[in-house]
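stage 2 :: seqdesign
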């Protein structure tokens, strides 16, 4: 494969991973390669990153794919000593690399502990590659087929059990230093990332970089499905949600005063009539005063959308300062107002933790019933919807085959100024099983909203 072929495949892999690399940027990257010393791998990485990476959130995915297409090593990548590895000439199940020698494993763990103590990044990299070679190889389905596993490595080496040993070696009889422990934990995390990287590198040599890039590269934060987000992702999502929330609030509360006339401006109309002999040929009107509208949010917090519920609660928290008034309600089968949790000045972390705990408790004891929730909302909180109110429903529209209360929903939509429904499921799953998405979509504008990109599109398309 020529360098140009590798470049084209690399750029295509970036696009498939969700990085927006345009044709012009691909050409810029190719031009940069002609002006850089591509024998220096880090220079090559920096050149590509400067031309194709637009956002910091795209950098982890870029680095992962770059390591697949431009690996630092090939093959075993390290010299394995004879006493700790099987014969390199052997093939098949005998060449598993899983040494059953307890002393060999103990010696390796001792080396790893020393590397963690001194913080030697280069040595950690060598040990990570060595660990994959010795402990990561597993049986393939066909004779001679090789597969590698990060889990096998971490399970055999158990680096987390070395923390206390390393601390004791560093501090001796002194009291434990929290900063030192955190430094060791960071070193362990770095070792695990190096193991994962080497496993991906070896897999790419066997199955091809394109295949591994499609299967193991995690989507960037804006393309990550809310329903599959981890706790660590929610922190990053919060930073992305706040700008979108401000844009959403601005569009929702924008008065169309440029196209709609306000009250008659009598003085300007009389003055203008002087030029036509006192006949008011043209009337003038006062501009309408822009004002912020109200927002009512109904949020499904059932188990089927637990992760999406965390996102929706974050969205409501971000929106609370952008509207004249925000009223938030959560439901599984019974509606509950949680507006008090979103007071201005409240700690967002405490708010999210409290609401997540209550949502989890509610989902354990109730089955989702949208019809009952809408009916109870209409009965208990009918005054919440006015001609100045925007209604936002967040949920997957799966109601366990219960009554949907469609007339009630139609009435709620009629009472509100604008109404939208954000659904975290892909449209191909709508109306499958107990989903009533299509029926509700006939009454209220329903949008697929599985990630931050789709949320941004929803905000952009609002008139």
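stage 2 :: out
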């Amino acid at each position: 494969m020529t360098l140009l072929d590798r470049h084209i495949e690399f750029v295509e892999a970036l696009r498939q991973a969700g990085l927006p690399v345009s044709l012009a940027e691909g050409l810029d990257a190719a031009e940069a390669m002609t002006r850089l010393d591509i024998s220096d791998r880090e220079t090559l990485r920096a050149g590509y990153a400067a031309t194709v990476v637009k956002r910091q959130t795209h950098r982890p995915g870029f680095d992962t794919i770059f390591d697949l297409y431009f690996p630092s090593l090939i093959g075993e990548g390290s010299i394995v000593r004879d006493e700790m590895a099987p014969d390199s000439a052997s093939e098949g199940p005998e060449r598993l690399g899983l040494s059953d020698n307890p002393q060999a494993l103990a010696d390796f763990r001792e080396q790893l502990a020393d590397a963690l103590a001194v913080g030697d990044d280069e040595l950690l990299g060598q040990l990570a590659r060595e660990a994959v070679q010795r402990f990561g190889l597993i049986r393939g389905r066909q004779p001679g087929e090789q597969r590698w596993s990060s889990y096998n490595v971490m399970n055999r080496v158990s680096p987390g059990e070395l923390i206390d040993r390393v601390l004791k070696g560093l501090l001796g009889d002194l009291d434990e230093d929290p900063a030192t422990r955190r430094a060791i934990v960071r070193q362990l995390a770095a070792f695990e990332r190096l193991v994962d990287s080497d496993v991906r590198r070896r897999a790419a040599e066997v199955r091809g970089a394109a295949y591994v890039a499609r299967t193991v590269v995690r989507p960037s934060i804006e393309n990550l499905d809310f329903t599959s987000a981890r706790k660590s992702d929610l922190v990053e999502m919060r930073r992305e949600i706040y700008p979108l929330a401000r844009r959403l609030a601005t569009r929702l509360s924008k008065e169309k005063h440029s196209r709609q006339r306000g009250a008659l401006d009598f003085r300007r109309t009389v003055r203008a009539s002087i030029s036509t002999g006192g006949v008011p040929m043209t009337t003038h009107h006062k501009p309408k005063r822009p004002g912020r509208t109200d927002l009512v949010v109904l949020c499904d917090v059932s188990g089927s959308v637990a992760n999406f519920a965390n996102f929706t609660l974050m969205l409501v928290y971000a929106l609370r300062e952008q509207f004249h008034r925000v009223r938030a309600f959560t439901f599984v089968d019974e509606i509950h107002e949680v507006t008090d949790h979103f007071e201005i000045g409240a700690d967002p972390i405490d708010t999210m933790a409290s609401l997540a705990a209550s949502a989890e408790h509610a989902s354990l004891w109730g089955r989702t019933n949208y019809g009952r929730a809408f009916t109870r909302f209409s009965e208990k909180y009918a005054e919440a919807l006015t001609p100045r109110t925007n209604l936002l429903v967040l949920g997957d529209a799966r109601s366990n085959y219960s009554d949907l209360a469609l007339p009630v929903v139609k009435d709620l939509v009629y009472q509100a100024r604008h109404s939208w429904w954000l659904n975290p499921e892909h449209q191909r799953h709508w109306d499958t099983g107990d989903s009533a998405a299509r029926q509700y979509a006939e009454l209220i504008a329903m949008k697929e909203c599985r990630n931050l990109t789709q949320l941004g599109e929803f905000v952009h398309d609002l008139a």
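stage 3 :: structure notes
- Residues 3-69 form one domain.
- Residues 258 and 287 are 8 Å apart (CA to CA).
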